[in-house]
Amino acid sequence: MTSRDKEMETGRNIHRKRSRELQWSNEASQELLKLRYKTLRALFDEAETVADVHEAWGVVASRLNAMENLEMEELDPVKCSDQLTKLRLLWQDSNTQLQVMMAECFGQQAMETMQEASPKRRKPTEPFLVSPTESQVEDSASTAELEAPLSPEPESNSAAEPEGQVEMSNLQAVQQEPVRAEAQADEEEFSRQDAIMRELEKRSEQLERLAESHQHLAEVTQKLMEALVNQQHFVEEHVSTSSKVKSSQQRSIRSKVLEQYPDLEPYAEMLMPKKAPMVVAKCHNHIQIVLHEGEPVFFNQRDGPFMPTLKLLHKVPHVMKQVRADKGAIPFVLSGANVMCPGLTSAGGDMPESLEAGTPVAIMAEGKEHAMAIGILTLSTDDIRSKNKGVAIEMVHFLGDDLWTCAHID
């Protein structure tokens, strides 16, 4: 197995540059990255059977479980494999039954064999069912006249009438027998066709489920590729350096963060351990990002206040002051726009505390549980209520921006 195959199986080191790639330009590295994503997508495009889809799912699931920025429940490839395997077995059983029933109903050879073997479809050849001819009727009548004893004429007529009725009833029974056989055969054929239609509907539902499963895998793969592209774009375009800071600077950052967010004290040793070195990534526009094992946890601009990232805030939502915007402001906030005063003072908005201008706040959405953005108050909450116009919060970080899509910085 080649290193490329191992990389596709484990889903790791997709961004690692080989020795020959270190001298390449950013454009060349980006093209190489796109080729790797195409290889991942090809796993689903080239899948022809359920087993192929299962193999592709194993690769995607391992990568999705390593990506925290997708905020999805953990995907179990084994569970998905079992579901796909059961679906495949049902599909195969349905296909086998369908082929047998189609052969019974529409196969010409099977129909001819059935007609030859069916006694109800053949013309009756037994002697007692053959209809008598006119000459046989005349001969039997003349013989009866010669052999019959002399008797009054009314008695002979009364004896001949029952024989004619028996012959007519036999003739009618012979004529009705093929009609009954054909009607019964038609009923059997219709019942087989109904069973085939039910099997076709059942198989159609199974195919729809397979198509939905394949579509779901394709959508998840697309999200994964977009997240990886955005992460690589953020690191290449925004991060200039990433290095360990001095112990004095580390103590300063730690004290500032705990001073601004006292409720973070129980988590301080986990997020910013004293004995472990602190790594800070410096970006354009004088932005610095504090990293914990490569994951962004805090950031600030110039000498401004430190603020937690939204991913960290979703884990410990109570550490930051909160305001709530109404439903009408949600699409504007998610596009990166500043929050206006009416969005906080309307019926759906809320500002429960008296906060001063310059305070970092978590921007909640009406009817939602987690914060959708982080910003800095440009006015105090009292001024926002009294003026009720203009910009109330300056946006600094929101769901879907570059910092949100960046899950790891080396």
From TrEMBL:
GO terms for molecular function: RNA binding. Residues 1-20, 112-169 are annotated as: Disordered. Gene3D superfamilies: 3.10.400.20. Residues 132-143 have a biased composition (Polar residues). The keyword Disulfide bond does not apply. Residues 190-217 form a coiled coil. GO terms for cellular component: cytoplasm. It is found in: Cytoplasm. The keyword Coiled coil applies. Pfam families: Pre-PUA, PUA. This is Malignant T-cell-amplified sequence 1. It comes from Phytophthora citrophthora. Keywords: Coiled coil, Cytoplasm. Residues 1-12 have a biased composition (Basic and acidic residues).
